[in-house]
Amino acid sequence: MNELSNFTKELKLSLESNSLIRLILSSPDNKTGNLNKITVRTIEIKNKSALSFLFTYKNKTITKNLNIEESISFIAELFGKSFTDCVLFTTENDFSFRRTKKGKILFKKLKPAHAGCDFSMEHNFKKTKIIKVENNIYLERLAVVKNGRVSDGMSGKFKQINRFIETIGELIEGSELIKQDSMNIVDMGSGKGYLTFAVYDFLINELKKNVSVTGIELREDLVEKCTKIAFECSFENLKFVQGSIESQTVSNCDILIALHACDTATDDAIYKGITSDSEIIVVSPCCHKQIRKQLHITGELKEITKHGILEERMAEMVTDTMRGLILEAYGYKTKIFEYISDEHTHKNLMISAVKTTNKIDKDEILKRLTALKKTFGIEKFYLEELMKSNL
Ligand SMILES: C[S@@+](CC[C@H](N)C(=O)[O-])C[C@H]1O[C@@H](n2cnc3c(N)ncnc32)[C@H](O)[C@@H]1O
């Protein structure tokens, strides 16, 4: 048996036994252009197992889902021809494969890096579960879990929580924060606290960090409810504060989160993140009214605005592109991507920003922002105005 078939055998086995957690193809040879890495994980589409491929290019990421049969030959071909490293993470063992210049495949069996995590089937869907359901007080109180199982109708929410935590974990791993033992996190517009509790739980119990997490929320009833649950969980350094995002004074913040805060509240959160020098900023925008009202498009692009839904999507794209530019201009490596499939929520776009030490040509980036505004007839971009007010 040649070693590529050994690779294919381990891959098939991990899929048949539902033990595959993740597969990463890296170290591309020069045939892949700007494609740097492919991350593959298991998902469930209409009750059938499938694999989700995240293609990471130099400046973008693309997700593609394939069924299991076509995935196996696709992965083997990618590893055999285009990538020299592949790591297969399973619940039993991890496997590292390296293709040498002469085409020989070196193979190592390693201890499982994700041992102890719960990756079992739950409610007929299979996926990586970082957040455990057993004895999980906050998920029970928030009705995501009932009697130790994900509640009916809450599998999408549970998946969203796990995917978000996975994203936060990856961002921390790729930032200077991984070296810190303690960190401060602010979650703006924390709502019912699903993600706030999960972030605290993950950082304390999985990453073993000494964290302090604060949820900021307008609604007093939600603040009271979350405070009570935090007490029941003995989450001592998790607190919820009633107030608006815009009125908060934020300092000493390492990670700023704002998921689905309405309209310009997302801009206020980004502003607080930049001005408090947060290492990581993660936002998932909600509605985009501020720019939609101002769009004044001429020329061929006007065709798009004939259809309300397309105009709305255009406003979303323009707003988030401008947010990305502001983050880049102020020293953040920024990515915009779908963090979860849109079958669970259509508010699935995420802007992640990690502070970079790379040299930034702020003026050049702001010129690009001005040109973009001109193309779309935008007079004022709220976040840009906030940044100007800080000068
Ligand atoms: C759609 S919920 C999202 C909750 C949570 N971030 C999540 O993704 O599960 C938005 C929450 O943000 C709060 N919110 C909206 N605008 C706010 C503002 N300006 N300041 C503080 N909270 C705000 C709302 O009350 C609501 O609870």
Overview of this structure, please?
- By secondary structure, this protein is an alpha+beta fold.
- It folds into two domains: 3-110, no CATH class; 137-389, Vaccinia Virus protein VP39 (Rossmann fold).
- It is 35% helix and 27% strand.
- Strands 4-3-2-1-5-6-7 form a seven-stranded antiparallel sheet, with helices on one face. It has a seven-stranded mixed sheet with strand order 12-11-10-13-14-16-15, sandwiched between helices. A two-stranded antiparallel ribbon has the order 8-9.
- Strand 11 (210-217), helix 6 (220-232) and strand 12 form a beta-alpha-beta unit.
- Helix 4 (155-173) packs across helix 5.
- Bound molecules: S-adenosylmethionine (SAM).
What topology does this entry show?
Blueprint: H1 3-16, E1 20-28, E2 35-45, E3 48-57, E4 61-67, H2 68-81, E5 83-90, E6 94-99, E7 105-110, H3 137-141, E8 145-146, E9 149-150, H4 155-173, E10 182-188, H5 194-206, E11 210-217, H6 220-232, E12 238-242, E13 255-259, H7 265-275, E14 280-284, H8 289-292, H9 308-329, E15 332-338, E16 349-355, H10 362-375, H11 382-389
Parallel strand pairs: 10-11, 10-13, 11-12, 13-14
Antiparallel strand pairs: 1-2, 1-5, 2-3, 3-4, 5-6, 6-7, 8-9, 14-16, 15-16
The protein binds S-adenosylmethionine.
Summarize the structure.
This protein has 391 residues and is α+β, with helices and mostly antiparallel strands. 35% of the residues lie in helices and 27% in strands.
